[in-house]
Design goal:
The protein has 426 residues and is mainly α. 85% of the residues lie in helices and 0% in strands. Helix 2 crosses helix 10 (199-226). It is globular, with a radius of gyration of 21 Å. Keywords: Cell membrane, Membrane, Transmembrane, Transmembrane helix. It is found in: Cell membrane.
């Protein structure tokens, strides 16, 4: 990994330090204050509107990342021209979702739903973080996120500290998305004022995103649903209280994924730019080894202190989150490896294949969650996630381009032996 990519990785990881701080000292404090039931209500509303948020972007994060890596100016024009379509799609999906939720019951869930609807709107527009990551300028994202998250966490902590009405937690939910969007949008517009001013340009880029994104739309919706089916299933079978416990397990089990994502996002531009297919495979294999090594270190650490951590910071009501948290840690590692493979497929324009794959995984995940959650609760939900991620990483990718991914995985297992033989040969 070159110095610029490594520096970018460090900046991307450093921005998450404040998030980890918040998870340890603020989110846990809030969860202990409101209890599993109210915490479950908040996480359920968040889960539902995240689906609309992801779907509204039409996979534009991947499309724009790839375009900017190859052509900076064109990438900026693509961002500017396609903003309206993201707004329209979000509203088309999110408004009916909001209306179908329990709006007749004007309790806490209603306010949390409205807050998550607004927060999802700003998150769906915030494609600027992808832009800065593609340019290896994660430093900007770091400054923005540290300031924004600090403000949102402070408000959340004050509400809990003074034991105010839990409904007021709706405000930091909105702030956590609104502030980063406003700050990043200002920086982007101030420094990169490149416009697709002609209506023909806007039409061209919009059609491009819809054309490429149409292959992603099923994939994005399918992925956003199957990754959250465990939440929906637990809520259906066991209610909000058990959902609150599982949400803690999921938050802790995935909290460290930013480390893997930082390396992936910093290293992928070099892979997209590489013209030699053999070198591409070598770089992808090395990146996967890095991810596995880092993940196993973190999982070992979590296994040692996890039980104590939940008991001290979240309280005895959440202690059942320990086992599913460990299981989800392995799912996080596998998911990171799967992300690399998906980006590898994207390099060869396998958008349509990824769309079909995600749709198939949705059905597999639905079956797994129904069977495992119904009879095994939160542990079953975690196991369903792991099995789905394993299938996503392996079998479901092996049909792409005459087994290209299977050859890649063979290279992963063969590389240590090749290095060993080379060493002996010397």
């Amino acid at each position: 990994m070159n110095k610029k990519a490594l520096s970018n990785s460090i900046w991307m990881m450093s921005e998450k330090i404040i998030s980890i701080f918040g998870l340890i000292f603020v989110t846990s404090y809030v969860a202990k204050y409101v209890g599993p039931s109210i915490y479950g209500e908040i996480m359920y509303a968040t889960t539902i509107f995240q689906i609309a948020q992801v779907a509204s972007q039409l996979g534009s994060d991947v499309v724009i990342f790839k375009r900017i890596s190859k052509n900076h100016i064109s990438g900026i024009k693509l961002i500017n021209a396609t903003l309206p379509i993201r707004v329209i799609i979000y509203l088309i999906i999110a408004v009916p979702t909001l209306l179908m939720m329990d709006l007749n019951n004007f309790g806490r869930g209603f306010y949390f739903s409205i807050a998550c609807f607004i927060a999802g709107f700003f998150s769906s527009l915030d494609i600027f973080s992808t832009y800065f990551n593609a340019l290896l300028k994660a430093k900007i994202n770091t400054y923005v996120n540290v300031v924004s998250i600090s403000i949102a966490l402070l408000v959340r902590w004050l509400i809990s500290f003074f034991k105010l009405d839990p409904v007021l937690l709706s405000f930091p939910i909105v702030l956590s998305s609104f502030l980063p969007f406003i700050f990043r949008c200002y920086i982007y517009r101030h420094n990169f004022n490149i416009r697709s001013s002609l209506s023909s340009h806007k039409k061209k880029y919009t059609i491009y995103l819809l054309k490429v994104g149409s292959t992603f739309v099923v994939a994005t919706i399918a992925v956003s649903i199957y990754l959250r089916l465990s939440f929906i299933s637990i809520n259906y079978f066991y209610g909000k209280e058990m959902l609150g416990v599982f949400s803690v397990a999921n938050n802790l089990g995935t909290a460290w994924i930013f480390i893997c994502t930082s390396f992936i996002n910093s290293y992928m531009p070099a892979i997209f730019k590489e013209t030699n297919d053999t070198e591409v495979i070598t770089k992808v294999v090395k990146l996967k080894y890095i991810i596995v090594f880092i993940s196993l270190l973190i999982i070992s650490f979590v296994a040692i202190i996890g039980h104590w951590f939940i008991d001290v910071f979240y309280g005895k009501h959440f202690i059942d989150a320990y086992i599913p948290m460990l299981i989800i840690c392995f799912a996080t590692m596998i998911s990171s490896l799967s992300t690399i493979t998906s980006r590898y497929i994207v390099r060869y324009s396998g958008y349509l294949y990824l769309s079909k794959k995600s749709f198939a995984l949705l059905f597999i995940s639905a079956i797994l969650n129904f069977c495992l959650v119904k009879y095994n609760g939160v542990n079953g939900a975690a196991i369903a996630i792991v099995i789905t991620e394993i299938i996503s990483l392996t079998i479901s990718n092996y049909f792409f381009n005459k087994g290209m991914v299977l050859k890649l995985h063979k290279s992963i297992f063969m590389m240590p032996f090749l290095i060993l033989f080379k060493t002996k040969g010397k």
